[in-house]
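Record type: monomer structure entry
Structure origin: computed from sequence
Chain ID: A
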Amino acid sequence: MRSVPGAATVRVVNDAPVEIHTEAGMGRREFAAAPDRLWAALPAVFEELSIPVNMRNTSELQMGNAGFQTRRVGDKRMSTYLDCGSTLAGRLADIYDVTLMVLVRLTATSDGGTAATTYVDATAKSRSVSGNAVHCQSRGGLEQRVADLVAEQLVGDPGGT
């Protein structure tokens, strides 16, 4: 089965339908700058967000982190960017251990610019109780923040936005 962006799995739990989203979040923004200029800007973007880069594929122009445990992105709590569900104790994104994947892929556009596509995926697992991890749904804010930081890096760059 192929994951379709925006699609959800519907399961019935206790006679009530429940939507379960399992696809990664995705955000795309186009820039007037050439791909090499965005590629040079990406390390500073990841550093600003406190996301360690452990994946760099120069031939595919992909950079990011394939999965790391974190409690914050930059200065923001995880629930700012992720919905992992909640309990009476609070939002699971803030109280569970979150494993986050953030990947940016650059592609040249026909007008000489670059499309930057950011993928965000995460799971959360209880720190105190054994059990399965839950899939977290991106709220879209991290994808937006990555694009905004790329734009900030390009300000003043003669080949930038």
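Annotation 1: The two ends are 39 Å apart (CA to CA).
Annotation 2: The CA atoms of residues 69 and 99 lie 4 Å apart.
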